[in-house]
Design brief:
- It is built from nine helices and no strands.
- The protein is mostly helical.
- The radius of gyration is 21 Å and the shape is elongated.
Amino acid sequence: METKNISTGHSKESFIEKARRAQIMECAIETIAERGFAQASIGQIAKRAGISKGVVSYHFSSKEELMHHIVTALYVDGAAFMSRIAEETTPASMLRSYIETNLAFIGAHKQHVAAVMEIVWNARTEDGKLLYAKPANDAILVPLEAIIRWGQEEGSFRAFSEFGARVMAMTIRNAIDRAGSLLADPAFDIEAYTLEMATLFDLATRRQPD
């Protein structure tokens, strides 16, 4: 009985700390999305959360660490959300699912996406370099290129050169990422954007009858 009580106590403490960290991160996301990265100071974040700067510093040793957790959380959540793409059984349906799922995630996490874009564009190291510089190997394009090559091999996609497949993958990825910056426009209709994107790239990749 005593062991059970002790265990419950530790779990409760862990839950409280996790809840506080989640609150701080959420307030940081809201502050960055509304005010921009430069204006989102620890003081501003603490004020929005209704806590002292010391409480923020207790959970996150620096603004850089807090930003890192915000960026990581988005990519972890995004990876889990994208897992449904693997359920598709044809190249065409997988490509459509890739586009629709990515845009659905962006639409469902508007503030978080806006905050991460601000962080990626503005967070810098002590020597002035971008903290989240784009990887040189463009690893994010690998899944798209794999879908395109599968479609070629299976015969439902048109022929692509190796460079052509990379260009198509880059174009799709850039169009998806562009949606993140368009969210600030109240007139932007992400559902219509998604439909047009899915149709556009279906036609762009589809093999035409001989």
